[in-house]
Amino acid sequence: MNFSNEQRVEAIILAAGLSTRMGSDKMALKVSGQTVLNKTLIETLNSRIGKIVTITRPGLDLDMVEQYSRFFKKDVTNVSNFWPEEGMSLSIKLGLTQVGVEAKAVMIILADQILLNTFLIDKLVGESLGNSDKIVVPSIFGRKTTPVIFPASFFNKLRKISGDKGGKEILAMEGRMIHTVELGQKYDDTDIDTPEDYSTVVSKFINNNRV
């Protein structure tokens, strides 16, 4: 289900990291038959998010991304980041070039947090619609985490960030404009940086989905 233009929340999925500690492109790793990128994309496509922009490194096989876009009948645009060494901020800025002019907010999603699911995405989007002027930040027992939703009023500030901190610079300066959503044990934000992380997260994913 898409929101109307008056309520439209879009998403940028960041998947262009160098994967230095992994030793290979972690976006191509498999989780229950799906790549890491595709797993996160499917959860986002199933959600009430509108347009989705994926930011990847050049050379990644994106055939399934295109197929999913057609199957879910949603607009998915991919942008290649040829300078991933510039950090996460460049990927965010590249994503913003493709966000629709009608977007009221954008959710910044880290593709390697594969335990993020459609239910959590929709919950955060709902919180954003009820607090349209605020930055929506999930929290796990008081620890702020990602994905973060920035309203359109912050897009220009996002275009000025630099380095690998992403939107953390803005969050540090805009404390009064943050709406925190406590998720507690409902959300496991473990990401994939090393082969050990990969094994751990895959085990958690399988256990979470075991009948």
Description of the molecule:
This protein has 211 residues and is of the alpha/beta class. It has one domain: Spore Coat Polysaccharide Biosynthesis Protein SpsA, Chain A (Alpha-Beta Complex), CATH 3.90.550.10. Helices cover 31% and strands 21% of the residues. It has helices spanning 36-45, 63-72, 88-96, 118-130, 155-158, 168-173, 195-208, and strands spanning 9-15, 30-31, 34-35, 52-56, 76-80, 105-110, 135-140, 143-144, 148-151, 178-182. Strands 5-4-1-6-9 form a five-stranded mixed beta sheet, with helices on both faces. It has a three-stranded mixed beta sheet with strand order 8-7-10. Helix 1 (36-45) packs parallel to helix 2 (63-72). It is globular and about 40 Å long. The two termini are 27 Å apart.
Quick synopsis:
The protein has 211 residues and is an alpha/beta fold.
Helices and strands in order, then pairings?
Elements lengths: L8 E7 L14 E2 L2 E2 H10 L6 E5 L6 H10 L3 E5 L7 H9 L8 E6 L7 H13 L4 E6 L2 E2 L3 E4 L3 H4 L9 H6 L4 E5 L12 H14 L3
Parallel strand pairs: 1-4, 1-6, 4-5, 7-10
Antiparallel strand pairs: 2-3, 6-9, 7-8
Helix pairs in contact: 1-2
Number of strands: 10
Low-confidence stretches: none
The SSE order reads: EEEHEHEHEHEEEHHEH
| Tally of distinct domains | 1
CATH class: Alpha Beta
The shape is: globular
- What share of the residues does DSSP label as strand, in percent? 15-25%
CATH topology: Spore Coat Polysaccharide Biosynthesis Protein SpsA, Chain A
Largest beta-sheet details: 5 strands, mixed
Physical arrangement of strands within the biggest beta sheet: 5-4-1-6-9
Instruction: Give the rounded overall mean pLDDT.
Output: 90
Termini gap: 27 Å
The number of helical elements comes to: 7
- Let me know the CATH homologous superfamily: Spore Coat Polysaccharide Biosynthesis Protein SpsA, Chain A
Structural class: alpha/beta
Using only C-alpha atoms, the radius of gyration works out to 16 Å
Please state the second-level CATH architecture. Answer: Alpha-Beta Complex
